[in-house]
Amino acid sequence: MSDSGPTGSAVPAGRSRLPERPPLSQPRTTGSRSSRQPALGLLGLLLVVPIAVLLAIGAGGNGSTRLLAPLVTFSLPLVVMIAFWWEDWPGTQLRSSWSGWADTVLIVAGAIALTAVGQTLAGRLDPVALFDPSPGPGHVPTFPATMPLAGLAFVATLEITLVGEGWPFRRLHPLVAGPIVVLIAWAIAITGYLTVVQVEPPAGSDVIARDGPVPGAVLGAVLVLIGAWQVLCFVVWRGWPFATVASRAVRLTIAHVTVIGGGIVSYLVLRQLLELTPSRIAALSGCFIAAGLLIGMLFEGWLSNRAALLVITLTLTAVSAVALQATAGAMHLTHSAADDWVGHATLNALAVSIILHVAIGRRWPFQSISVDSPGARPR
Q1: SS3 letters for the chain?
Q2: pLDDT band, very low/low/confident/very high, at 26 (cuts 50, 70, 90)
Q3: What is the per-residue pLDDT for 9?
Q4: Looking at the chain, which terminus has fewer C-beta neighbours within 10 angstroms, N or C?
Q5: Count of beta carbons in the 10 Å neighbourhood of residue 246
């Protein structure tokens, strides 16, 4: 990646195909670093932090988790499609100051529509419960019933896009390939939700009970851990060590097995050996994902040493986990609700704010500011 965006450069007008491999998966030397960092990342925090706070507590503690977490999670496949497949189209048709905002409006509209689809699968379409964190008996609340579906769709989208290098869809026109990937991810998610997930309806709700072999909370924790491996390998470490393997078949096989297997094994270790609850595992994994995106995306190009990147990411994970748990305690949330809120604050607030600023907004309004020397002015 470069300071200009998640893929290094926007798709030029008229380009009918993307590069064979995503720039994130291209081998590169480890000695390069951006002279614009860390100042560019620090400037980005001026936008990222207020948006993250708004998403985290805009509807209160439990309210933000129950209302905003499903909406934001359902939006993530669209975020990936616009950022990594469409490379910010259709926002690129507008002036830079409007580009990211236009894409964000499109993502919000799509998120509402996809959350409504998820709610229908969970029980029935219920517009009241779609926008009410506590709709009461006789409704279909979207949290937590729809979260396994939303998580499956997002993780599958990232698995195809980054871990699988978009193969073989990168041969197609980007505007065609992106929706195909999202549809495939949704097909995987729906199949898994209807056959694997165990759903226990909240008392008095119209959510449909499902007797799948895997409880929704357990699947959610595993999915977040898989996401953590995706972020570590393909954002923090930029595709290492897989990017150095020449054979595509071998490279993709190793990458998929490592990321998915790593998520499952990590869950077993944290659950069986450390005896952490699924909600606590998801919360800690969310802190790691947010920290990884902060270092690997917002402060992209500042550090190149992989060991240092991992150490800093783990340090930020620990700091954010302690700080957010303390914040949840100040809001007088129960232990399980506190873990749910920490997961929302990291995965659906901070992480998404970083992606929107860097990958969708292309660091507007700071992208043209030179910070190579003291006293620099906009170029």
Answers
A1: CECCECCCCCCCCCCCCCCCCCHHHCCCCCCCCCCCCCHHHHHHHHHHHHHHHHHHHECEHHHHHHHHHHHHHHHHHHHHHHHHHCCCCCHHHCCHHHHHHHHHHHHHHHHHHHHHHHHHHHCCCCHHHHCCCCCCCCCCCCCCCCHHHHHHHHHHHHHHHHHCCCCCHHHCCHHHHHHHHHHHHHHHHHHHHHHCEEECCCCCCCCCCEECCEEHHHHHHHHHHHHHHHHHHHHHCCCCCHHHCCCHHHHHHHHHHHHHHHHHHHHHHHHHHCCCCHHHHHHHHHHHHHHHHHHHHHCCCCCCCHHHHHHHHHHHHHHHHHHHHHHHHHCCCCHHHHHHHHHHHHHHHHHHHHHHHHHHCCCCCCCCECCCCCCCCEC
A2: low
A3: 42
A4: C
A5: 7
Asked if 111 and 71 touch (Cβ cutoff 8 Å), the reply is yes
% of the chain surpassing 70 pLDDT? 88
Which tokens go with 341?
A: 């809120």
Could you give the CA distance from residue 220 to residue 110 in angstroms, rounded to a whole number? 22
Burial code of 184-221, b = ≥16 C-beta within 10 A, e = fewer? ebbebbbebbeeebbbebeeebbbeebebeeebbbbbb
Hey, what are 223's tokens?
Answer: 């999915």
Give CA–CA dist 240/236, Å, rounded.
9
Beta pairing partners, 199: 210
Paired tokens of 179:
């929706």
With left for phi above 0 and alpha for psi between -120 and 50, is residue 34 left, alpha or beta?
Answer: beta
pTM score over 0.85: yes
240-299 pLDDT, tens per residue?
Answer: 999 889 999 999 999 999 999 999 999 999 999 999 999 999 999 999 999 999 999 999
**pLDDT, tens digit, for every residue of 310-341?**
999 999 999 999 999 999 989 888 877 999 99
The token pair at 125 is 């379409």
Determine the average pLDDT of the residues in 344-369. Answer: 88
HSE (side-chain half, CA atoms, 13 Å) at 131: 5
